Amino acid sequence: MPSIPQDRSIRRLSRFLALATLAGMVLVPLFGLGVWFLPGLANALGELPGSRWVGNGQNDWFVFQIRLGAAGISMIGIGLTLYGLFGVRRLFLEGAEGQYFSEASVGGFRQFALASLVGAIWAPFETTVFSVYLSVANPHTRNAVEISLGSDTIESIGTALLLFLMAHILAEGRRRHEELELIL
């Protein structure tokens, strides 16, 4: 059966997005960890995570052990991001094959939605953990705890909840479609 033009464009876009997601899966840990081990990269990218507690906004005074600990804290968010990207990449790969509502496709979207929700909830805690860790590690500042919940965090959680709902709707639609196929 020949594919219709819309189907070809969806497949082409899905292939492109799968490739872009793969690039993102490489860049996220590279930049997320690179800011702790390459001070020049942190300065080029702008604000360093937890820069309020590193004194002058530079992390060049950190000894290796402190950098390693900060990278470890960053790994939680990086891991969540990668988990979500693996899922959405699976969605794109299935879309490239024309399997828009396959079990793998719906599962990939659910994985992305879950990672987005957990990541949005984790973000304010990450700020708090960074504030404690970096202020204690920095001999030039007082110990501090920052607890922050702003409109950006609430928007991120709301968006993630919307994605989570959409994932469940897609899963239910898939289940009902399978039931219909069994009946027919």
Topology:
Blueprint: H1 5-37, H2 39-45, H3 64-96, H4 103-137, H5 151-183
Average pLDDT taken over every residue: 86
How many helices does DSSP assign? 5
Q: What profile does the largest beta sheet have?
A: none
Number of strands: 0
Please report which band the strand proportion falls in: under 5%, 5-15%, 15-25%, 25-35%, 35-45% or over 45%: under 5%
DSSP helix fraction: over 70%
**Estimated radius of gyration:** 21 Å
So what's the overall shape?
elongated
Gap from first CA to last CA: 21 Å
Count of discrete domains: 1
Structural class, by secondary structure, is mainly alpha
Order of helices and strands: HHHHH
Uncertain ranges:
none
Describe what is shown at a glance:
This protein has five helices and no strands. The chain is mostly helical and 184 residues long.
Give a description of the structure:
The chain crosses the membrane at residues 16-42, 62-86, 112-134, 154-171. InterPro entries: DUF2975. This protein is mainly α and 184 residues long. The protein has one domain (5-182). It is built from five helices and no strands. The protein has helices at residues 5-37, 39-45, 64-96, 103-137, 151-183.
